[in-house]
Amino acid sequence: MFDDNGIIKKGVIIRHLVLPNYIQNSKNILKYIKEHFDEDTYVSLMAQYFPTYKAKEDDKINRKLSNKEYKEIEKYLYLLDMKNGYIQELGSHEEEYVPNFDLTF
Question: Are 27 and 76 in contact (CB under 8 A)?
Fold first, then answer.
């Protein structure tokens, strides 16, 4: 699956972005992966969500993920005893990497 340099050569990595106020959805996804995919499938749990554009107007997703929410989904991931994957740290600089889309032509 990986070469000598740690580069994946074959297999599947499922990347899942955890959203604020939708922790149960993330649990459902992780449970589905556990039950329906081979245990060699890798899961990448991502925490970098932040609201942009119209998401800022939506009460459910107008904020970043809280530490409490992320710890809950991380705990659930371990409870499922999934064998392979990555957990992204909860960050604070995601907005710095988004281009300015307010261009006028």
Answer: yes
Q: What's the whole-model pTM score?
A: 0.80
CA distance 31 to 82: 10
Q: What is the pLDDT along the chain (105 residues), one digit of tens a residue?
A: 778 887 878 888 899 999 999 999 999 999 999 999 998 889 999 988 888 889 899 999 999 999 999 999 999 999 999 888 888 887 766 666 565 666 555
How far from the centroid of its chain's Cα atoms is residue 4's Cα? 27
Domain boundaries, the chain: 13-91
Per DSSP, the residues of 36-70 read HS-TT-EEEEE------GGGGG-TTTSSPPPHHHH
